[in-house]
Amino acid sequence: MHKPYQEVFKHLPDFEITYHILSPEEGGSKMPAFQGIRWDFTYEEYPSERFMIYPEIIDVSTNGIFAPGIPIPKFGMATMWVLNPQLHPVHQKRIKVGVRGIL
């Protein structure tokens, strides 16, 4: 069961993204993704760097979080949670509208 990250981390999300999950034909996984997935985050501009920044998928129909146990949509929005607070200055400099990342 997924516990909302705001309850877990006791603060608001660090930033918000729109995402696109690649299909197997596009080079993505054959397994569906679910709420609570813990992918590492990489900036497209810095492909050798990986960060523990977890997505929490937003249910756009309710403006809440996406229900656990149901595969998440291929396209959508997510709040992002930086796990290492010491890296906030790095991400604050890099995160801007239009920056591309890879989960």
Q: How would the blueprint of this fold be written?
A:
Elements: H1 5-9, E1 15-20, E2 42-43, E3 53-59, E4 64-65, E5 75-82, H2 88-94, E6 101-102
Antiparallel strand pairs: 1-5, 2-6, 3-4, 3-5
CATH fold category name:
Elongation Factor Tu (Ef-tu), domain 3
Strand content: 25-35%
The major sheet is characterized as: 4 strands, antiparallel
The spatial strand order of the largest sheet comes to 1-5-3-4
Q: Short summary of the structure?
A:
The chain is of the alpha+beta class. The chain is built from 2 helices and 6 strands; from the N terminus they run H-E-E-E-E-E-H-E. The chain is globular, with a radius of gyration of 14 Å.
Could you characterize the architecture of this molecule?
The chain has a 4-stranded antiparallel β-sheet, with no helix packed on it. A two-stranded antiparallel sheet has the order 2-6. The chain has 103 residues and is of the alpha+beta class. It has helices at 5-9, 88-94, and strands spanning 15-20, 42-43, 53-59, 64-65, 75-82, 101-102. The protein has a single domain, classed as Elongation Factor Tu (Ef-tu), domain 3. It is built from 2 helices and 6 strands; from the N terminus they run αβββββαβ. 12% of the residues lie in helices and 26% in strands. β3 (53-59) and β4 form a beta hairpin.
